[in-house]
Write a structure and sequence with these properties.
Elements lengths: L6 H8 L1 H14 L1 H4 L5 E2 H8 L3 H13 L3 E4 L2 E4 L1 H6 L9 H15 L3 H6 L8 H5 L2 H25 L7 E5 L5 H9 L4 E6 L1 H13 L6 E5 L11 E7 L7 H14 E12 L9 H10 L11 H10 L3 E7 L5 E7 L4
Parallel strand pairs: 4-5, 4-7, 5-6, 7-8
Antiparallel strand pairs: 1-3, 2-3, 8-10, 9-10
Helix pairs in contact: 2-7, 4-5, 7-10, 10-11, 10-12
Bound molecules: S-adenosylmethionine.
The site of S-adenosylmethionine (SAM) has 20 residues, from helix 9, helix 10 and helix 11.
């Protein structure tokens, strides 16, 4: 990332949180969906959303100023990315991920970031604490499902699993990745391991996908619950970033034990560049975990591959999955 030089660039970072909130508020109010079918005036959007014209106009000015919508005369249209990703019902829609997880959970939790940095407190004792509450688990998991579906599809398409029959999806959330991988690999059976309140939510998504007979659900804390053995594949998607340094090593050791000889570990997670020059979204995602736990760390693919080797794995392939945000590492347990 280029070092900033201008005062207005500083302001843009400082005001960025208001822009984020404008986006989350708009997702709650609904202009992106109402603009999906064509231009609307403020009065029409006021009628559509039930928000009084005056505050709505102020929101629309802000959305237009940051490029989320476009003013044309007295009407507004969606910016292309909002049309594609934020209008409800759009094929690539994932606005619920922003609205629910970022807007309703991460945004308020960040008030605790300073305390997390100084070790004087955290938003929840741990992630486990937040996700032990059924309402929070439902909100988080519904949002994550919306956010993970696209990545799951790409991962399943480009990761040949050969004749793999068993897969353990640890911290599997809604089961979005297991659903995609089982759909793509008809002989694969998966088990999703996650906290009990999350597993209750995952059941709905897996049943909806018609995969209840091929995806088992295991409730527990990944760090302490025993994992099934002889797995052909272990999948860790966004789990390691949610853990502290010691727990990461505990989980990698368990992954090695759980895999059959020659088995495949798939890690999908935020990763910064090896020279730590970015990308911003990965680095910021790691940072937000400090609001939840003081022992969170950030890692690059190189650093994580070093840890994997330390645990006996042979990391083979690193690829970007979500550009500027996440990568996958495929690593093998040695064959006998
Ligand atoms: C960001 S979500 C990712 C979910 C899913 N893997 C995906 O990619 O869509 C992280 C998941 O890890 C789970 N998780 C975090 N720490 C865990 C732990 N110690 N034991 C079990 N699950 C855990 C959370 O409950 C959550 O469902």
């Amino acid at each position: 990332m280029r070092a900033i030089t201008e005062r207005r660039e500083l302001s843009s970072i400082a005001y960025g949180f208001i822009a984020s909130k404008a986006l989350f508020a708009a997702l709650g109010v609904g202009p992106f969906t109402h603009l999906a079918s064509g231009p609307r005036t403020t009065a029409e959007l006021s009628h559509d959303t039930g928000i009084a014209a005056s505050p709505l106009q102020t929101l629309l000015h802000a959305l237009s100023a940051v490029g989320l919508i476009v003013a044309e005369g007295h009407s507004y249209t969606n910016a292309p990315a909002c049309q594609r990703y934020l209008a409800q019902g759009a094929p690539d829609e994932f606005g619920e991920y922003f609205r629910l997880q970022l807007g309703q959970q991460i945004y308020p939790a960040l008030l605790q970031l300073d305390a997390g940095l100084t070790g004087t407190g955290a938003a929840s004792d741990t992630f486990a604490d937040l996700l032990s509450r059924p309402d929070e688990a439902r909100t988080f998991t519904a949002a994550q499902h919306a956010g993970s579906r696209g990545a799951a599809h790409v991962l399943a398409k480009r990761t040949p699993l050969g004749g793999a029959r068993t897969m353990l999806d640890v911290g599997g959330g809604s089961g979005a990745l297991s659903i995609a991988l089982c759909t793509r690999n008809p002989r694969l059976r998966a088990a999703v391991l996650d906290f009990p309140a999350v597993i209750d939510v995952a059941r709905t998504y897996i049943d909806e996908a018609g995969l209840g007979a091929r995806i088992d659900l295991l409730s527990g804390d990944a760090v302490h619950t025993p994992w099934p053995a002889d797995q052909d594949v272990v999948l860790l998607s966004y789990l390691l970033s949610a853990l502290g340094a010691t727990e990461i090593d505990m989980v990698l050791a368990k992954a090695y034990t759980s895999l059959a000889a020659g088995g495949l570990l798939i890690v999908h997670d935020f990763m910064i560049h090896d020279d730590a020059s970015g990308p911003a979204s990965a680095a910021l995602w790691f940072l937000q975990y400090l609001a939840f736990r003081g022992d969170g760390i950030s890692f690059s693919a190189g650093a994580l591959s070093g840890r994997l080797r330390h645990h006996g794995f042979t990391p083979a392939e690193t690829e970007v999955l979500i550009p500027d945000t996440t990568k996958t590492i495929l690593a093998r347990k040695a064959s006998p």
